[in-house]
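[Q] Does anyone have a clean structure-token version of this?
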Amino acid sequence: MKMNHALVVAEAGVNHNGELPLALRLVDVAAAAGANAIKFQSFRAEDIVLRDAPKAEYQRQTTGAAETQYDMLKRLEIDRDFHLAVFEHCRTREISFLSTPFDHASLEFLTGELGLAQVKIPSGEITNAPLVLAGSRRAKDVILSTGMSTLSDVENALGIIAFGLLGGDGPCPRAFAAAYSSPEGRQALAERVTLLHCTTEYPAPFEGVNLNAMTTLSRAFGLRVGLSDHSSGISVPLAAVALGACMIEKHLTLDRSLPGPDHKASLEPGDFAAMVKAIREVEQALGDGIKRPMPCEVKNALVARRSLVARRPIRKGETFSETNLAVMRPGSGVSPMHYWDLLGRTAGRDYAAGELMAAPYLERDA
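[A] Here you go.
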């Protein structure tokens, strides 16, 4: 079994509240916590939502019901200069910059001007076929989040992605299905796509996480699988790593009491750092899967295991029996696994009470 090392992504999302200093501070915190990457969200409100579109219930609870979803998103847009400043700060802090595009213009900017190789397709866009196709055509690697999805939804999206990765022309459902089922399409998906199990609720209740679905995704599609986690605390990401997650995405905020839709479902800096530390400890604990004595425990075998010893003084020529043999620590003598080999044999020499038995083969000529 290969040693696991999950990519940890700090989901800054829109927790910058539209303020560049706050975004830069999130980069600092993510880097200090040991995250591999920090991810933002890139969008233009007028391209993704109608002006009278309602908010989700969790958004109404965290930002109020009077404001429309459009107005909320408009406040959280980040422009080109904002992107460039954060991108450069990530380079300085040696942490990868990622951002999720929600529209075609943002996708082109991220993969073009910023040169991002990875594109994240969020759960809400998994049925946005034009954007999924554009993402697969422009990206080297695709991360597909699967919140709110059935296996059929995921398969349909993977068909579009396979078509895009192969550079297919004439997009249509039949062409997508053909690309998905082709050996070339399957190979491209295996090499370039990561699936993220996700529960799209903020915060996600533990009974709604359904973490075993991560294993189902892996078996169904044979792809790398990770977790985009919206649950409270750090226990679910740790369990996901133990199940083999290759990526953990978790929301990060400087303060859960800040105004904004996602702060309350995010980890503060101390908890995020604790999560990263615990993930690395879990990965160390998983090991390579080979069952063998570990170097750290070999020395304890002599103390914890037992040997065959003389229960009382045994004279040369006396028959070994249940009454004169005992099994006692330490384990530096003959293993008790040879107990029945000695029974009925005769001692080749005298033994004092408590003395370790000689190796069985030394007694065979007696």
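[Q] Thanks! Anything notable?
[A] The radius of gyration is 30 Å.
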